[in-house]
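Problem statement: downstream parser choked on a complex file, so we are re-checking the raw output for the zinc ion run. The parser issue turned out to be on our end (a line-ending mismatch), but while we're here, posting the original submission so the record is complete.
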Amino acid sequence: MKYTSSLVTLLCATSIHAQGPKWATPPKLVVGIVVDQMRPDYIYRYWDNFGDGGFKRLVNQGAFLRDAHYTYVPTITGPGHASIFTGSIPAFHGIVENYRYDRTSRSTIYCVLDTTVHGVGSDMRRSPSQLLATTLADEIERRTDRKGKTIGIALKDRSSILSIGRTGDAAYWFNSNGSFVTSSWYMDSLPAWVKQFNAQQLADSYLKHPWEPLLPIERYHQVLPDENPYEQPLVPGGKAFFPYNLAVLSGGPAGLGLIVSTPWGNTLSTDMALAAMAGEGLGTDAITDLLTISYGSTDELGHKVGPRAVELEDMYIRLDQELARLLVELDKGVGVGKYTLFLTADHGVIDVPQYLKDLRGSAGYLDIADAREAINTALAKSSTAADSVLYMRRGEIFFSEHQGSSLNVYELAESIRIVNDVLSQDLAVAMVMPSPLNDIFSGGPSMISDAVRNGHMAQRSGDVQYVLRPGFIESRSGDTSGTEHSAGWNYDTHVPVLFFGQGIAPGEVVRRTAVADIVPTLTMIIGCALPDASVGEVVHEVIAR
Ligand SMILES: [Zn+2]
């Protein structure tokens, strides 16, 4: 039998060869999966609790880039999704923050806010108008003369919108009233299949059940008991250990929005993705379609409980089942080997710093309110510096004017010097860097200074950047439970990248690669143009030839 099957393979290979190059027969469907806040070591740590059809199938039958990184800061959701799908960096695609500070309005602007559009299914005004480079969806639309269908699904609005971009067909996201919605940027009314999906009220029915561990508790890789001081509750004032009575918790102010912090936020995302496949007929003809799915619950829960929690492992064991379910449906609907899939994450995350501190690791917090006050006090003492700091968060500082007029180059330099003097007194701060255009302090070690530059866009970023030391995060009013991401250190930059399906040569790649390499690699399989600002390189090892 073995001989026969290899003979069949040989004959197939020969006949495909006779039809021309592989890229002339592109996959019928490309599936891009983003797990929000996933570290590669979750695959190692949870491996023995995974089933055969999810992560293990992707690793065993696909290609695994084991040392793939983001090359910019801040490593957060908006910039992450934009960078994955443009194959680029914030300096070029323009999504430098989830909420960036705007000097003119003296307020923050959400990365997918657009007051010129209206919500479809909700009153949220959202669009990709702040994204300044093409995505994989844009290039598939171009390659297929707009006949390919390109659809994004996510819990978070920014995750679906920035995965698809400006000229793709649709981005749908979860509205806390329990339904999936979109923007007039893409369409004027929801398609019938979305209305039917929403009418099932799945979020409501999932929240009727309690959340208990899927496996016997001794099978989890816990280094801490389920109840510990490093975790935050699912809802304010609640408890942070099993079981969670979701029916009661969702009866409070959280409402149906509670689902995003539970494994069923991921279930709902798979449900919606499968509804999109059926409703739009994705992958059913020879024209390449794109489906993007961002699993957002891993981030919502991850912030609250951190990487060592039993709850988080339970969520990943259930996500593994979701992936298996998705793959089975793709096999049925599109065909085994007829689609190309990748999975990555928009950023990693650090352990709860207080936990690391208690282990006597080098870790801790920078209290942003205190730091800002200290800088303001020092600025006030100078007659040639900014009057004050307008905004300070996540590595960015924006200065005010000096006595009513904008800062000249000397006043800017003096203001930056003062920030450097104040912040470098705190061990939590590794370095202070001026904006690249005001490069009077030379940058510091290359990995981090490159990351700051790659994440910086003159029109949208601050006057001076500061970088915290590994292990440190900005504290939220002294809270030492829960955790955060955004740094240029490995715990936030290092993410898994898995390729699977048509055109993919299975195996492991252990050399250092970049998340920006994913899309250029896919364009070689699809046979379409590179996105405008793509900076990655093709990972040649994973291309089947
Ligand atoms: Zn997050």
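For whoever reads this later: The pocket of zinc ion is lined by residues 37, 77, 299, 303, 485 (CB under 6 Å).
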